[in-house]
Amino acid sequence: MLVNSPRRAAIAILLCLTAAVLALVLACFWATAVPSAPSAAVPLASPSPAQIASCYDVVVVSGEPEGIAAAISAARNGARTLLLSERETVGGLMTAGMLNLIDLDRGHRWCLTTRGIFLEFYGQVGSPFDIARGKQVFEQMLAREELLTVLRPVTAITPVMAENRVTGLRFAYQGQTVTVSAGRVIDATPDGDVAAAAGAPYTFGQEDFGREGTMAATLMLHFAGVDWNGVIRAAREEIFGPARVRGRHGRGFGKLFTAYEPVDPNMALRGFNITRQGDGTVVINALLIFGLDPRDPEAVADAYRRAQAETKHVLAFLRREFPGFEHATIAGYPEMLYIRESRHILGEYVLDIADVLENRDFPDRVAIATYPVDIQAARPGEFGFVIGDPVQYSIPFRCLVPRGVDNLLVVGRAASFTSLAAGSARVIPVGMATGQAAGAAAAYSLRHGVDLREIARVPEGPHIRAIQELLTAQGAYLEPFALEPAFTRHPAYPAAREIMRLGLVSAGYRNDFGLDRPTTHLEFANVCTAALTRAQTLGRLPGLGEVRYPLSVPEEPITAPEAARMVLWITGTAAAAADAWPLALERDLVPPELTDRDPAAPLTRGDLYLWTAHLLKKGQFPIPV
Question: What pLDDT digit, counting tens, does each position of 241-291 carry?
Fold first, then answer.
């Protein structure tokens, strides 16, 4: 039963005023917080199985930051809330995983767009933060909520279903199997485990753009005995390439990627993101683990063990080669891996990479995100890349409502984003913002007797507006905006967008698509064959046979007749140079925009995208001769 009382209202108003003050102080300015001296966090005492109620208004699954935000939000909005934490340590990736450098979202005019409950946390810990302090703050935030019960550790969590509706959860706790019913359920698990078990459709990893695998996972490195002055010297002298150290944070050292030879062939060491803790130890985000399927617990456990073994080899290398690490030792290991990608649950709306880079706003916005589209390597030998850097875009409520399953919301990186869009939307502050939105929406829907999907299907309706007003009153930033990027007005951009959706465009932090730059035989061959192959994998080109890579691809400018001959070869036809252009025109293999092109003029990258997009639109290809 939802709880309403003058006391609860007064507490809610006080919390809102506190969040508003924090927002005014921190939203538009960065100042790295001075870390508080870490003190032992006293976890909330978990009740015995006999003390657990049989029914809750809202049940949130996962003690990750996104789940904490959802549970706190639901409780503050009057819902009796149960939080199921997979670990004794709450805070998930930020605490048990030791990811203590926060990817802040700063949008138009450099204002922080992820506020509310996230800002309450960030305002107390800063970035980078001491992990002990992060644990303490999360515990304190949970302990303040009278309507919130936390169970930990909980395992074997499965949804209780009535047809396609989640009505509760069954789980193992303190040696017993416990079943609770729920008015609403929020899945904050990193892999969308509850939604998948309930039957919600999803894509896995990068399969939605025709590629196998997921972004690499990471085991954070935790070392003691590191001389921070040595790290500063390594950056200043660029011993492992360009780097910078500011205060307790250093980043760069990209030459480590080639300097370190991993013992495990499915691992690599990239450049450092290194932070110094208050106790003098350092935490490093650098060790990449490839080929992991996060849905397989045995595979995850094996990857964790192998990464621990690789950590010892990394340390030996650093002690020999990296200034400041001469006397370093392993201080410990995180409790969990940092897994960047797994399931992408399909919701009422699927956020697309174009939505992100085109700064799209939605009427049912429940969070505003800004982080660059950071795609990490997926296999050994690859480099990560940045598709682009939005000013800001909004997350629609529809992304939290999974298709085919009722009474359930999904938040965090498993929410309804394409794999490429998740390169930006997966960051924790955005996940906490969506968590806060889900908690508020769940409580609101119960109070007003309205179904979650009913709310989602009217993006401009009164329920969405009421939820937005509620979130704004509780510290969230949800101002409408219209920010059209200049690059979208280029004639070749619509074609570039189609190629981008296949993961084959990297505009970097400056959103430089290079549409007017000359392209080359090599780039034309690489982009065209990769695009056709990925589209074929997705079943989009049933009439296309084998995609053949050209025999000669010099890194020299390419003209339209040369490109026509290459396209014929790629799609299965060998043609003499003199015959290629008319034959390609006859077969409709040349985009209309280029049919009158000067045959001696070099093609641009924009022309390459136009040509490739034209081929992608063809459902049938002539029989090769």
Answer: 999 999 999 999 999 999 999 999 999 999 999 999 999 999 999 999 999
Strand, coil or helix: 224: strand
The DSSP line for 539-587 is T--TT-------S---SSB-BHHHHHHHHHHHTT----HHHHHHHHHHT
Which pLDDT belongs to residue 103? 87
Judge contact between 602 and 484, C-beta under 8 A.
no
What is the signed CA dihedral for 349, 354, 356, 361, rounded to 10 degrees? Answer: -60
Which of 37, 69, 55 is closest to 434 using CA atoms? 69
Beta bridge partners of 173: 176
Q: Which SS3 state, helix, strand or coil, does residue 416 take?
A: coil
**CB burial readout 232-244, b (16+ within 10 A) else e:** bebbeeebbbebe
Per the structure block, which two tokens stand in for 432?
């906490």
Q: Is 293 exposed, middle or buried (0-12, 13-18, 19+ CB in 10 A)?
A: middle
The backbone region for 175, taken as left when phi is positive above 0, alpha when psi lies in -120 to 50, beta otherwise, is left
| Closest listed residue to residue 340, CA positions, set 215, 439, 203 | 215
User: Which amino acid, 241?
Assistant: G
The burial of 440, by beta-carbon neighbours within 10 Å (0-12 exposed, 13-18 middle, 19 or more buried), is given as buried
Average pLDDT, the chain: 93
Interacting residues of 495 by C-beta distance below 8 A, sequence separation 6+: 606, 609, 610, 612, 613, 614
Give the percent of the chain with pLDDT over 70.
Answer: 92
Please determine, for residue 39, whether its predicted confidence score (pLDDT) is greater than 90: no
Q: How far apart are CA 430 and CA 2, in angstroms?
A: 27
Q: What is the 3-state secondary structure (H, E, C) of 278-321?
A: CCCCEEEEEEEECCCCCCCHHHHHHHHHHHHHHHHHHHHHHHHH
Output phi, psi for 51, to 5 deg.
Answer: -90, -5
Structure tokens of 435?
């968590």
On the question of a cis peptide bond just before residue 128, with omega within 30 degrees of 0, the verdict is yes
- Which tens digit of pLDDT belongs to each residue from 554-567? 999 999 999 999 99
Tokens matching residue 98:
């030791």
Q: In 3D, which of 203, 208, 201 has the Cα closest to residue 405? A: 201
List the structure tokens of 274: 């290194």
For 261, residues 6+ apart whose C-beta sits below 8 A from its C-beta are none
Beta-carbon-side half-sphere exposure of residue 306 (alpha carbons within 13 Å): 21
End-to-end CA distance of the chain: 72
- 11, pLDDT greater than 90: no
Segment 392-434, tens digit of pLDDT? 999 999 999 999 999 999 999 999 999 999 999 999 999 999 9
Q: Give ∠ CA 296-298-303 in degrees, rounded to 5.
A: 95
pLDDT in tens, 219-244: 999 999 999 999 999 999 999 999 99
